[in-house]
Design goal:
The complex is a heterodimer of chains A (278) and B (102). Chain A is an alpha+beta fold and 278 residues long. Chain A is built from 7 helices and 16 strands. Helices cover 26% and strands 38% of the residues of chain A. In chain A, helix 4 crosses helix 5 (230-246). Chain A is globular. The N and C termini of chain A lie far apart (59 Å). With 102 residues, chain B is α+β, with helices and mostly antiparallel strands. Helices cover 38% and strands 29% of the residues of chain B. Chain B contains 3 helices and 6 strands, in the order ββββαβααβ. In chain B, the strands form 2 sheets. Chain B has a 3-stranded antiparallel beta sheet. A 3-stranded antiparallel beta sheet of chain B has the order 2-3-4. The mean pLDDT of chain B is 89. The chains are: A alpha+beta (278), B alpha+beta (102). At the A-B interface, helix 4 and helix 5 of A face strand 2 and strand 3 of B.
Chain lengths: 278, 102
Amino acid sequence: MISGTRKVACVKIGEIPIALSTCDEGFLDLLRQRYDGFLSSSPPEFELEFDLTSSRPVSDDDVRVRRDGDDWLLERGDFHARWDPRTGRGSVRQNANPYSLDSVLRILHSLILAQRGGFLLHAASAVCDGRAYLFSGVSGAGKTTMTRLAPPDVTLLTDEISYLRPNAAGYSAFGTPFAGELAKAGENCAAPVSALFFLEKGSENRVDELSSVEAVRRLMRNILFFAEDHRLAEKLLASACDFVAHVPVRRLTFYPDARVWHEVRNFPRNFQEVPEHA
Amino acid sequence: MPEACLYIARSSAIAARALAGEMMVMNSADSTFFTLNPVATVIFQAADGQTPLSEIVRDHICEQFDIDPEQALKDAEQFVAELSSHGILIVSSQPLVSEAAR
């Protein structure tokens, strides 16, 4: 039953609180359950009003994110959203499907982050000894495997979408509720990034250097970016180059058992300095 | 009969950045990403819409890379056609105003 009053849940991911409001009690419950652990009482920086439409299946259509005057339009078969970056407010029409909700939130965060020098990366991430490690690669390369093999003292930030923002010394990784195969939200915490590994399965564990160009190429291919916008694309490319200049990016070939985490844990000791990049 | 001149200009939809001598190019229209080798980078950087491709090849490619002019032009035309199909370069038989410069 839909009432006329909007109820709000504020979801804070990556230190960015976004108020999500709806008139639908059931949808509000869904929001609260899905983003449990990321709910916040902070004053929101941004606001999205959700209006539910009749049920439409989650769409495989390509998502389109484009400018309409000053607004951003976010469109896919299962949702239509408009967001004004000047006021920080927007509206979404979608069904009550949680996957549509996740998609809208991810896109909005990707737009906000791109302006702030950060990005969402298709990667698992976890905190080990106070430092964050990112594990990226093609589908099946071992992102979820790495998280499953993690020792008990390792904190999972995400097994699917890593959230990265620049800090004074480099980059920080934040936990996200966006889960992959593991079907488990990450912890709502953050840590400075120690390394990004591109995964490949093999018969032994080894870490290899990547050239800065190869590192940027692989990074760009795994960044979640949807906006058809030249200026934002320029910012994103600059951020990717900056990331590679500040964070060691390596290829991690691994045999899928727990010993690979020794390699990860020992990386700061074995790593002496970030190579100079152009 | 002289061959028609080709003029090339960079699309306004692209973001580009040079790193370690290679040009990285992203097409913001579809988020595709390319890395250009050093020869392609020179052509891309010289794509001002005003200089014929043959002149770019003669003055920049042959001079810097010691390549046979005829083969270099053939390779350049192929490269330009490929980047054009990805929306990175605009190709015309007339001089162009580079969209990126607008």
